[in-house]
Amino acid sequence: MEAVANSYDLIIIGGGPAGLSAAIYGGRAKLKTLVINKGTIGGLADTTREIVNYPGYMQISGPDLMKDFQKHAQSFNVEFLKEEVIDVDFSQENKLVKTKKGKEFYAKAVILACGSQPRILNIPGEKTLRGSGVAYCATCDAEFFEGEDVVVIGSGDQAIEEGMYITKFARKVTVIVLHDEGILDCNKVSAERAFNNEKMEFIWNSTIEEVLGEGNVEGVKIKNLKTGSSSELTCQGVFFFVGMVPSTKFLNNSGLRMEKSGYIPTNERMETNLEGIYAVGDNRVKYLRQVVSAAGDGATAAVAAERYIEELNDFNANILQTDKKTLLLFFNALVNESLEFNTLLEGVLNDTAENYKLFKVDTATKKTLAEKYKIDKVPAVVVLDRGEEIKRLDCSMDLEKLKSQLF
Amino acid sequence: MSLQQLDSTRFEEIIYDNCEPCLVIFSKKECHVCKEVVPMLEGMKPQYEGKFGFYYVDVEEDKNLFQRFSLKGVPQILFFNEGEYHGKLAGKVEEEAVEEKIEEIIG
Ligand SMILES: Cc1cc2nc3c(=O)[nH]c(=O)nc-3n(C[C@H](O)[C@H](O)[C@H](O)COP(=O)(O)OP(=O)(O)OC[C@H]3O[C@@H](n4cnc5c(N)ncnc54)[C@H](O)[C@@H]3O)c2cc1C
After folding, report:
1. Which CATH number fits the domain A323-406, given the four candidates 3.40.630.30, 2.102.10.10, 3.40.50.2000, 3.40.30.10?
2. Number of helices (H) and strands (E), helices first, in chain A?
3. Which pTM value belongs to this model?
4. pLDDT digits over B23-40, tens only?
5. In CA terms, which of A220, A236, A345, B51 is 20 to 30 Å from A103?
6. Is the peptide bond before B75 cis (omega within 30 degrees of 0)?
7. Nearest-CB residue to A133 (from B39, B43, B72)
């Protein structure tokens, strides 16, 4: 049956540190787990030459660390597929995920771990001269600028660290900074190193308006934001490090709540506004976007997904597949009245031969069920017949009143 | 299907002697964008078998080739037909863009 072959408990979209950590937890919990990742496993971390702040590793290359993550996930029987996801349908209980090559997969829960990609400024010359001097990745392209003059745009960690790497090849690296003299957005250690690097120069209060050149980059047009004046600077290469954009565009019509910027808000369990859909790592609204925090998110989401799936399976097996009528009793241990009602109801059911099955739902832990039936106060009882709601009870403590509603 | 790797000699033969319509991706190992684009080309190759060639150049192993085309960065896909250069696509390109370019040449 095809439906089984392409059905999973958990699908993770994206195989960076967040997705791989989720995969480790999902696999360990014996969930049938699939990671769909376009490109190389490891995501952005795979492009990082050196990572010195992941606990347990004083210094390791990004690709090496990510290989360890992947091996770890594979040891728990996680499946991997190298494809791009281009569409989803999250409106049903069984979530549908479609790839660019036309494959379709179903899952009970989906974790979004798609990370981000470099922001494109969209200034004249940027697109047309890409690969002809315009670049976004120092590891990939720095060596093509041996002995030449390079301009770096941006002053964050990435811009400054990548800029310093480029000085190994280039004659000179000029960094264009938005801020006043001496102010960089990067960490202090990197800033100090950059200021002491003889090959690094800075142009303050400025941005670039245009990449100049026919066929190859010949220079940039720089605009001083304080004076409004423009000037030209000759160079053979321009590296853009002007921030990242989350790769969440393919989710635009999924009903998922996103910020204008494309980041996905979640709660502390990594839950999104859609049931069974989680967002982790660089995809979500958060304070720190690093490998260690991405890994933490992945673990949290996988555990939340595991609990959700367990509830779902439990519910489907016990309630939807039974011939008896079911009473879903919602209670909360902190609400005394709901506990008393529980005792009363059980008593009534024990005294009769009527075929009711009682399913107790603790609203403190089974939030998804409470939400599904829109329960805002306990006790509450929903009567189901073969899984369909047929009525709700008035949860009166009056025995006769209760009986009359049931029989 | 993996792409056949060319060194300078094979490059001459295929592009200029055989005048084959083909594309050549200039790539290197430590480049994550290349690692996305190369498998895409590998996936496309079978449907063009016998009509359009797909080749691979490692710029670290054959420096003179990328210098000759004054390339500034990887990946770049260069297109050739009848011994003539027919333009290039740089960076993270979509399958459709490559298809269009191939159609332009053999279409
Ligand atoms: C230059 C640089 C240096 C850095 N240095 C450090 C450092 O030293 N220490 C540190 O802790 N952090 C560092 N970071 C940050 C760190 O890399 C990220 O925070 C981390 O990789 C985020 O992990 P992620 O899993 O959320 O996303 P990513 O690592 O971005 O992974 C996302 C994955 O999803 C895939 N994907 C996207 N869309 C789809 C789709 N539609 N279908 C299928 N797959 C898809 C992508 O191809 C990618 O493989 C650095 C980042 C950069 C750019």
Report:
1. 3.40.30.10
2. 10, 21
3. 0.82
4. 999 999 888 889 889 988
5. B51
6. yes
7. B72
Are the beta carbons of A100 and B60 closer than 8 angstroms?
A: no
The ipTM, to two decimals, is: 0.77
Report the pLDDT value the prediction gives residue A1, as an integer from 0 to 100.
Answer: 37
Q: Is the CB of A125 under 6 A from ligand 1?
A: no
CATH superfamily assigned to domain A7-118+244-315 = FAD/NAD(P)-binding domain (3.50.50.60)
| CA pair distance A49, A167, nearest whole angstrom | 15
Paired sense of beta strands A33-36 and A79-81, if any: parallel
- Identify the pLDDT of residue A2: 43
Pairing of β A219-224 and β A230-234: antiparallel
- Among candidates A38, A40, A130 on the partner chain, residue whose Cβ is nearest the Cβ of B91: A130
Contacts of B31 in chain A (CB under 8 A): 137, 139-141
* Domain residue ranges of chain A, discontinuous segments joined by +: 7-118+244-315, 134-240, 323-406
pLDDT band for position A47 (50/70/90)?
confident
Which residues, in sequence order, are bridge partners of residue A381?
Answer: A329
Tokens of A242: 């002007």
Tell whether B87 lies on the interface with A, counting CB pairs under 8 A.
Answer: no
Amino acid at A219: G
The pLDDT of residue B75 is 93
Please report the pLDDT score of residue A353 as a whole number.
63
**Among the listed ranges A113-117, A151-155, A294-298, A321-325, which one has the minimum average pLDDT value?**
A321-325
> Is B31 an 8 Å CB contact of chain A?
yes
- Report how far residue A265's alpha carbon sits from residue A295's, in angstroms, rounded to the nearest whole number: 17
Residues 48-67 of B with CB under 8 A from A: 66
